[in-house]
Amino acid sequence: MMVKKMVLSLTLLAMVIVLGSFAPFVCKNGGIKGKIYLVAGNQMPNIGQPLPGKTPLQTTLYIYELTNVNQVTRADVYSSFYKSINTKLVKKIQSGKNGAFKVKLPPGQYSLFVKKDSLFYANIFDGKNNINPVTVEKGKYADVEVRADYDAVY
C-alpha cells in the first residue's frame, strides 16, 4: 500500500515536471488589448475651458501586418484615410460598448485601423512611416489606445 502511494506520488510529480516544461510553448501567444475612443470637436486648449472628453467607441478594429505608407492607397495625397491597404489582414475584432477589446496574436508587428464609412483610418506613424504600429512580444499583451479622431480639430 505504501509503495503504491509512493509510485503514484512520483508519477504525479513527473507529470507536473513534464507538462510544466511545455508551458512556454502553450503560452507563447500574447496579443493586443486596449480601448478605442472617438475624439471629436475642438481639442485646442482654452483657458478656463476643459477639453472635450473622449467617448468609448464600439466599432471594428482591423489588424493588418505592419503596413507602411507605401503599401496603402490614400483617399487624398496627405490624408489619414485609406481606400485600400495592400498588406495581409490578420484579424478583425469588434470592440465592446465601452470601447474595450482583447485579441490573441502571435509575436510580431502589426498596424491598427478603424473605419469611417468605407475608408480605413489611422493617423499615427513611426519614424519609418509605418502606420499605427504595435509590437506583440511573446507571451505578452500590448496595451494600446486607438483614437478615432477624424472629427477632431487640433
Molecular structure report:
The structure is a single chain. The chain has 154 residues and is an alpha+beta fold. The protein has two helices and eleven strands; from the N terminus they run ααβββββββββββ. The protein has helices spanning 2-21, 23-26; strands at residues 30-42, 55-56, 60-65, 72-74, 81-85, 89-94, 100-105, 108-116, 119-121, 133-136, 141-153. The strands form two sheets. Strands 3, 4, 5, 6, 8, 9 and 10 form a seven-stranded antiparallel β-sheet that branches. Strands 1, 2, 7 and 11 form a four-stranded mixed β-sheet that branches. Strand 4 and strand 5 (81-85) form a beta hairpin. The longest helix has 20 residues, at 2-21. The relative contact order is 0.26.
Shape: globular
How many E strands?
A: 11
Instruction: Give the averaged pLDDT, no decimals.
Output: 87
Uncertain parts: 2-8, 10-27
* Terminal CA distance: 78 Å
> Can you give the helix content as a percent range?
10-25%
Q: Work out the strand percent.
A: over 45%
In N-to-C order, the SSE pattern is HHEEEEEEEEEEE
Helix/strand/pairing category: alpha+beta
Backbone CA Rg: 22 Å
Q: Biggest β-sheet: count, sense, barrel?
A: 7 strands, antiparallel
Number of helices: 2
Summarize the structure.
By secondary structure, the chain is an alpha+beta fold.
Map the helices and strands.
Blueprint: H1 2-21, H2 23-26, E1 30-42, E2 55-56, E3 60-65, E4 72-74, E5 81-85, E6 89-94, E7 100-105, E8 108-116, E9 119-121, E10 133-136, E11 141-153
Parallel strand pairs: 1-11
Antiparallel strand pairs: 1-2, 1-7, 3-6, 3-8, 4-5, 5-9, 8-9, 8-10
